[in-house]
């Protein structure tokens, strides 16, 4: 097994772009991330690229941030078009098993509202976006600065789009590790979706987004998952929900857990629900 080495990124900004138009609360995203900028798009290294967006004429112009691998494969996060927008219009179809695990039907029946969710492992934001499309307030935590920048850029563009601004307004994005931020984050349910270990035999067929996350974050570590779950279980929330592959072992050592734990399954996924109070 090869040792993981994080990629070194080079920055590139298209000539039409304004350094301050990335949607981030900084004057220059590359300076903020400590990334050197080149005059031409590098072909043999990873690059964070700022491109001019094709936004509606009445929307504020916000450039798109895009991560490009040396092989030319690109990744950007877009909540205002494509599959994400379709999922929003479908009002969360496909996310219902997770919504049930988070206790949404019970909250609605008992309180007439939906629970507020802390997504402690933001990733590419698909689950947070789908849950927000159902009406849930979301606090999303992302620890990697590049992934956080891509998420912030996507949310800034979604806020400016008339079809997605309401959903985007329900999401608060925080930068940092979950262990640091969970004690002060506000929410009724914590959701954990730690990265699954990468399977080398299926690497070529794995989703593009997961390939990028594995390259940026490194291989999934059982110890890190255990620490994350331990931190979540210390928080004053109603439940902690952990997403796992169906048939996988529990995340971390939960032998000391004295509370109730239930499971909910969908075709390829299991949700472990820790009832905290």
TrEMBL record:
Compartments where located: Cytoplasm
Binding, S-adenosyl-L-methionine: 142-143, 193
Entry keywords, A to Z: Cytoplasm, Methyltransferase, rRNA processing, S-adenosyl-L-methionine, Transferase
A Gene Ontology term for the protein's cellular component: cytoplasm
GO molecular function, one term: rRNA (guanine-N2-)-methyltransferase activity
Catalysed reactions, as listed in the record: guanosine(1516) in 16S rRNA + S-adenosyl-L-methionine = N(2)-methylguanosine(1516) in 16S rRNA + S-adenosyl-L-homocysteine + H(+)
Similarity section: Belongs to the methyltransferase superfamily. RsmJ family.
Name of the featured protein: Ribosomal RNA small subunit methyltransferase J
Source organism (scientific name): Granulosicoccus antarcticus IMCC3135
Gene: rsmJ
